[in-house]
Amino acid sequence: MYLIEQKRLLERLRAVLQENYDIQAATLAIEQPPEIRFGEYALPLAFELARRLRKAPRKIAEEIVAALGEVPGFAGFEVAGAGYINARLDRPAAAQSLAAASTVSAPEHPIHALVEHTSINPNKAAHVGHLRNAILGDTFVRLLRAAGQQVAVQNYIDNTGVQVADVVVGLMHLEGLTLAGVQALMARLQQEQQRIDYYCWDLYARTSQWYEADPEQKQARKQLRLDTLHAIEHGGNDTAAIAELVSTAVLRRHLETMLRLGIEYDLLPRESEILHLHFWDAAFELMKAGGVLYLEAEGKNKGCWVMKRAGAEAVTDGPDEDAKVIVRSNGTVTYVGKDIAYHLWKFGLLGKDFGYRPFFEYPGHRCWITAETGDPDHPHFGGAQAIFNVIDSRQADPQANVIEALRGLGFTRQAANYTHFSYEMVALTPRCATELGYEVSAEDAARPYIEVSGRKGFGVKADDLIDRLIAATQAEVDSRHPELPLAEREDTARQIAVGALRYFMLKFTRNTVIAFDFKEALSFEGETGPYLQYAVVRTRSIFRKADTTPEQSLADIHGIDTAPFLNGEEGDSIWQVWLRAAKTTLLLEQCIETAEPSYLARHAFQLAQDFSNFYRKHHILTEANPDRKKLLLATAAVAQRELIRSLALLGITAPEVM
RNA sequence: GGGCGAGUAGCUCAAUCGGAUAGAGCACCGGCCUUCUAAGCCGGGGGUUGUGGGUUCGAUUCCCGCCUCGCCCA
User: Fold this and answer.
1) Whole-prediction pTM value?
2) Domains of chain A
3) Which terminus of chain A has a smaller tally of CB atoms within 10 A, N or C?
């Protein structure tokens, strides 16, 4: 509703500017007045025109208001302040229209988008940083789908990388296990119901320390690490089999952890297939032919295949010492090289495809994994028109280089539709680190936050956090609603815990470092998920007691004259809820355009606040005037509808009671 | 050395393309449960937006210098 009126107003304004001043305005700024009593839209355009027209802003604003005349859906326009034009909606009409529906206009040609998120090295348990990634990515998927786009969700698995190699070194050389020994270990862990990702968390940290522990052995151990990595990359040996076994088991644990938060994937592309299906060879040929790669003849990169770094100037005299090495002089391909090949595949430009086989079953949905020879009957993957890579900001440089390679190959459209969905890391506050029993140096204690490190085993595991959240919400629910059956209390506690966690990860803008603290994350008051859920629960209670439904209440205001109840200060306090509720679609569009889910989180919070204010001020069930009561019920209904809708976009559900 | 990001209330964060009195939450103080759920609501104190210039009707926002912190690259 809000967007439609906004577009109509701007169209009319453009026409007025054209007719009266012969001005073609491409973009017109539109805001909301500081207080709702001034109207719903504020236009500062008279200020901009003042100079051009050599007139006082107020005078221009008055002329424009006179020229606007009657605009359908609007009650009037007025000049305010030094020259603002404030627009007032026809509130009763707007309420009727919002009550009828809140729709998103479906795109004419839905985009085939590919969102990649989570992408945890399968060598240890997921931690809070991975949670931020997965929750951001999953939320963005929900936003795109709500806007009518076709979205495939991928979780990239680096199963042949150095991190997996470290755990394999730990198993084989610290624990002295063979392939059969590792199989026995995994069986034992399963029998004892121990999480293998937790076991690897500790082993990975131990192995990392072991490399450095003995100065005399340091060189030999680093060589062992390198040999192990190469054996894994090559495949077809026991070392690779151990890597496959362990990384796949850890991967399954990651999928289970994320499923606790309602996060699912369509495909798990693995590095092992990128290697074994020789994706790089195809990309190498394309890049050589396209002139993107060249063999450096002199300087420090002599003998390497390099490309111009993203954003760098072309070097004409001598070697480009700043160039990005793609193939080292010993013939090995760098990570960026493999990533370029993978991204050519994502856009359907590589001329090669993976094999696929089923890997994980969700209720009503199957997740596939790549394979050298797969199931012949599989869905189509890749070939996206737009891609979004949810990767932390530290990867900005390699991401830029992949985009640069695409552009260099002439795939400018694809390069333009490649979004590095960047976000800052989750770190721990020094207090949190101390609380967890880690030793904190004096230097670290003085910092606002300390970076999480899997190598040091330093961090908060995702499942531990979820477990703690559930324990805390369970205690609250049990004490508030002892009369409910256990299953219902558990389900309620789970929903609140998930709501608290998801909202916590979404309330910050992407480029803010989150300094994680249990006190804040386990808070259920104020700007938190449970606050939003509580607002919904209150509306549910109203409809239960009123013996009606939100749908019926929205239908019931059709035909009544709501105008007497939507004016003045009293009316403003009701209208505020409608106005906020009307903006959900606008916020959805803004979130997609800016790739910033936090705006919607904030919107949902503000709507919950508006409703809470309204709820306190107007007692619905005891309202004497029947028409006014209908409006109040419809207000609660529209608040509930848009809250549930906004929360769903954030991946949060609201329980029946709490 | 080069690149990117950040610096706003005691703390954690917002602030749409440059707009009206810079807003929330937490913490603190004081009120509100016999009326739809107090995981709530109302009120209060709390700001030289790191710093010095510039641009203009108007700057937290844009430009330049400096300081501090974080990340990335060699």
Assistant:
1) 0.97
2) 2-89 (3.30.1360.70), 156-264 (no CATH)
3) C
